[in-house]
Amino acid sequence: MEAVQERAPATAADRDVARALEFDLADRLLQLATDGIPPASQPSARLATDIYTSPQRLHQERRAMARRPAAALASSEIAAPGDFTSCVLVTCR
Q1: Alpha-carbon dihedral 40, 42, 47, 49, rounded to 10 degrees
Q2: What are 43-50's contacts with CB under 8 Å, separation 24+?
Q3: Residues in the chain, pLDDT under 70
Q4: Which pTM does this prediction carry?
């Protein structure tokens, strides 16, 4: 069995930022509960196509992912406490 690496404790600044984001989200949800969901009159965001086609953007994203890799999987793959999965790590250069 492999040892589980524990996360470093969050700094006070990290906790403050997370708490501020939680309060902002709670305020927005309460506003929606009070006012109701507004009708969709326009797209919520428009993205430039170069986000998907720019070699420079690809390089930036690969550098960011190399610094802080993230695992993505369906929650059903680890549905119960103690469940785990394994994967092959791919490096981007």
Answers
A1: 120
A2: none
A3: 1-10, 40-45, 69, 89-93
A4: 0.33
